[in-house]
């Protein structure tokens, strides 16, 4: 037994953060981005897009069952997944570009965690009041009727938002109006209900209770983004050389002080609960709400705005020496950002070109080599091929098939006496095809001859081809 005291716990309980309401240009910008991003997310699946009678009329649809993605007029088949990969690469490069130019601007303005947390805080403020009222309610130990009513109302509204969020997600994967009815009549698939339940739970917990903890502890991006930033990155910072030594009004009467009056407005509005005056911190999502708060204070005390501002650290020395900061463009356009922009543009151009030159019809040819050839009763040599045709149109099309190579070769389609086959709208169709070389002809005698299969859309004359070979006796 020992009477030594146990080591102090390294665990610190979370203190909830109740950011104060703030107004200003950055807050307004965040409201606009919140409205636009949430509007797009909730409404996009409901936009209709007429693609013809046999195709879905939903503008944005991830049709997993048929392995097809629809995005307005663009239709991506599963074998064209490189378009999706290209878009993901562009999103990554765009994130690198914005981070190297403007720091964690994605985190502060457009990240779903930020957007939904902002929305949840807005609801909380409507129901429980601004910072001080919420703090009082939080510290009130007694669970009286008012506290229960406010808490329940807030949680119910949060839950409705969370359900709508989970619900909106599944509409991207099925016809939205049909699925909407199915969900309420209990006819939707189990996957749909599980997805809604999962996203409802994560939205409710992440947006309502975990908030800044997701940004600080769960998200890997703060650790990665530092690699993309340098001293020319424009990010939110405190002009310490102007603000310090900070003062309370009493002290200011006796000694020269900086512009910061230590009012804590910047700290009270911060959604991650940090003090930007302590310098750059991993937790800061560069949302700029502290800029709005401090600018408001500076105006009221008759000092220039910008004590907290978007600043490049490379300007710090210049400003300390009394020179003006260089323009934002100087910092934004530098080799690193130009390289990211060039790569982003190159991938974008490549995708657009690929989109416009891709064929409306596609074919693959698989030669059946077991056996390599068959000798018919009249001595002719026959080879067999499986040709898969893709009709990417919204209507059935008649495809004519023909072959180029030795003129002696004759094409025959299994199941039809004709040289053309109808391929239903928006489908992939498998046709068995025979090539026959008469006895004594070159292809029948030679071990191998080159052939080119052609397919022609008889409606618009579009053509596609694939090369293969014909196996003869090799005499
Ligand atoms: S809001 Fe401005 S003046 Fe007030 S404490 Fe923050 S930096 Fe100082
Ligand atoms: S310090 Fe300022 S910019 Fe950073 S998270 Fe807090 S309010 Fe946003």
Quick rundown:
With 475 residues, this protein is an alpha+beta fold.
What do you see in this structure?
This protein has 475 residues and is α+β, with helices and mostly antiparallel strands. The strands form four sheets. Strands 6, 7, 8, 10 and 12 form a five-stranded antiparallel β-sheet that branches. The chain has a four-stranded antiparallel β-sheet with strand order 11-9-13-14. The chain has a three-stranded antiparallel β-sheet with strand order 1-2-3, with no helix packed on it. The longest helix is centred in the N-terminal third of the chain and has 26 residues. It starts with 24 loop residues before the first helix and ends with a strand. The structure holds iron/sulfur cluster (2 copies). The site of one iron/sulfur cluster (SF4) has 14 residues, from helix 13 and helix 14.
């Amino acid at each position: 037994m020992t009477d030594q005291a146990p080591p102090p716990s390294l665990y610190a309980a979370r203190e909830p953060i109740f950011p104060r309401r703030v107004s200003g240009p950055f807050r307004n910008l965040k409201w606009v981005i919140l409205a636009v991003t949430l509007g797009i997310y909730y409404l996009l699946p409901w936009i209709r897009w007429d693609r013809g009678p046999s195709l879905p009329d939903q503008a944005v649809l991830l049709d997993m069952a048929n392995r097809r993605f629809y995005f307005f007029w663009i239709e991506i088949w599963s074998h064209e997944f490189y378009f999706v990969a290209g878009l993901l690469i562009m999103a990554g490069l765009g994130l690198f570009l914005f981070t190297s130019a403007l720091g964690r601007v994605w985190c502060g303005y457009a990240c779903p965690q930020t957007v939904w947390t902002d929305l949840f805080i807005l609801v909380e403020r409507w129901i429980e009041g601004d910072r001080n009222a919420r703090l009082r309610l939080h510290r009130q130990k007694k669970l009286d009727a008012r506290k229960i009513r406010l808490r329940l109302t807030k949680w119910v509204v949060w839950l409705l938002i969370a359900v709508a969020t989970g619900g909106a997600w599944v509409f991207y994967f099925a016809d939205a109006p049909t699925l909407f009815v199915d969900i309420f009549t209990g006819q939707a698939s189990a996957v749909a209900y599980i997805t809604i339940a999962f996203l409802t739970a994560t939205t409710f917990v992440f947006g309502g209770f975990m908030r800044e903890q997701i940004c600080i502890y769960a998200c890997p991006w703060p650790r990665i983004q530092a690699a993309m930033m340098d001293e020319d990155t424009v990010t939110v910072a405190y002009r310490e050389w102007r603000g310090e030594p900070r003062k309370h009004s009493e002290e200011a009467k006796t000694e020269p002080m900086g512009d910061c009056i230590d009012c804590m407005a910047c700290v009270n509005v911060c959604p991650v609960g940090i003090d930007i005056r302590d310098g750059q911190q991993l937790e800061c999502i560069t949302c700029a709400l502290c800029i709005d708060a401090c600018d408001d204070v500076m105006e009221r005390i008759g000092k220039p705005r910008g004590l907290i501002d978007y600043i490049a650290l490379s300007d710090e020395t210049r400003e300390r020496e009394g020179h003006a900061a260089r323009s934002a463009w100087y910092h934004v356009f530098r080799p690193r950002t130009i390289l990211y922009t060039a790569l982003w543009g190159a991938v974008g151009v490549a995708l657009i070109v690929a989109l416009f030159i891709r064929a409306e019809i596609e074919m693959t040819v698989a030669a059946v080599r077991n056996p390599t050839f068959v000798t018919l009763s009249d001595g002719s040599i026959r080879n067999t091929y499986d040709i898969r045709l893709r009709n990417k149109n919204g209507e059935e099309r008649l495809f004519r098939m023909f072959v180029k190579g030795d003129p002696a070769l004759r094409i025959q389609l299994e199941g039809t006496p004709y040289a053309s086959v109808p391929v239903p709208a928006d489908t992939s169709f498998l046709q068995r095809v025979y090539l026959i070389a008469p006895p004594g002809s070159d292809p029948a005698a030679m071990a191998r001859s080159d052939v080119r299969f052609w397919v022609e859309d008889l409606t618009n004359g579009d053509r596609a081809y694939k090369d293969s070979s014909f196996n003869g006796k090799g005499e």
